[in-house]
Write a structure and sequence with these properties.
- By secondary structure, this protein is α/β, with parallel strands linked by helices.
- It folds into two domains: 245 residues, Aldolase class I (TIM Barrel); 72 residues.
- It is built from 14 helices and eleven strands.
- β10, α9 and β11 form a beta-alpha-beta unit.
- The longest helix is centred in the last third of the chain and has 19 residues.
- The protein is globular, with a radius of gyration of 20 Å.
Length: 327
């Protein structure tokens, strides 16, 4: 599968953009574990145009994580075009447009999946961003705003006409948020539409290697995108890739998994240059990781882990966790 001239190989598995999750430290780990492409946390076009320091930092990409995309969101043509140009100057391989984020503070203001209620503007933004940059432009969106407006089959064709290089579809409507099961039937319908020629990337509930293979075999997508299942578990990419290649899920020991989480923690602290902020950036991964699930009497240790403010404290708690895992 190719996005523009970027060859992602057969049956690629890519990392979804997630706010407060897909920072550079995590993206590097996911690439190391087999993710074929990664995407930054989504960045606000308005904040990019105003050169907000924290936003500009989110767009920093290192060579070890390529191919990598910067994802932008906004609600008007001028700011999205200018943000796309600025983002392109940061040196990504792809510019991705977010028409899928369902959270109220974004969608409620007309950006993200809020654009699904203003298709003419959505298409105008897409056309103008494609014209503004000399990089492949992709779009990530949802099936529609709600159950009564699942417009993705028609919208996909119209987005393709705007010149995008690939389309990622989350199999839920905005009104579903992340509730219920993702509906892949419409994703498959888009992919099997003979008028569609660009790659279609399926997203939503790809939580296991078996679900990833089903997405390829049953719905025919060109790639799958993994989101929440990767939080605190970058090794999910290795599991999926090996299963797709061999039919076997690799056994990754808890010591190796713990070493990844510790390395992510240290990389985050070093990248940000602030111990407490680096720890805060990894707490969501530590809270979500499946590595700690099922440990008997883990609740007090979990609380201590999520309250630790220094590396000494947190590493001490993680040492305690290792002793529990070793039982």
């Amino acid at each position: 599968m190719k996005i523009g001239n970027i060859d992602l190989g057969e049956r690629p598995v890519v990392l979804a953009p997630m706010e407060d999750v897909t920072d550079r430290s995590f993206r590097l780990l996911c690439r190391e574990q087999g993710a074929d492409m990664v995407t930054t946390e989504f960045v606000s076009a308005d904040a990019v145009v105003r050169s907000i320091a924290s936003t500009m930092m989110k767009m920093e990409i290192s060579d070890g994580e390529r191919p990598a995309a910067i994802q932008i969101y906004g609600r008007d043509v001028p700011s999205m075009v200018e943000a796309a140009r600025i983002a392109a100057s940061a040196g990504p391989d792809v510019i991705d447009i977010n028409f899928g984020c369902p959270v109220k503070k974004i969608a409620g203001k007309g950006a993200g999946s809020g654009m699904l209620r203003n298709v003419p503007l959505l298409l105008e933004i897409t056309r103008e961003v494609v014209k503004a940059v000399n990089l492949p432009v992709t779009v990530k969106t949802r099936l529609g705003w709600d159950h009564d407006s699942k417009i993705i089959v028609d919208l996909a064709e119209r987005l393709q006409d705007c010149g995008i290089a690939a389309l990622a579809i989350h199999g839920r409507t905005r009104s579903q948020m992340y509730n219920g099961e993702a509906d892949w039937t419409l994703i498959g319908e888009v992919k099997n539409n003979p008028r569609m020629t660009i790659p279609i990337i399926g997203n939503g509930d790809v939580t296991t290697p078996e679900r990833a293979r089903e997405a390829f075999d049953r719905y025919g997508v060109d790639a799958v995108m993994v989101g929440r299942a990767s939080i605190g578990a970058p090794w999910v990419f290795r599991e999926i890739k090996e299963y797709l290649a061999t039919g076997e899920i690799p056994l990754i020991g808890w010591r190796e998994k713990m070493a990844m989480l510790r390395r992510q923690l240290m990389n985050s602290v070093e990248r940000i240059g602030d111990e407490r902020r680096g720890i805060l950036h990894t707490r969501r991964h530590l809270a979500a990781t499946p590595l700690f699930k099922g440990i008997y009497g883990f609740r007090p240790t979990r609380i201590a882990m999520l309250q630790a403010d220094t590396l000494a404290e947190l590493n001490s708690v993680l040492d305690r966790v290792e002793r529990l895992l070793d039982v």
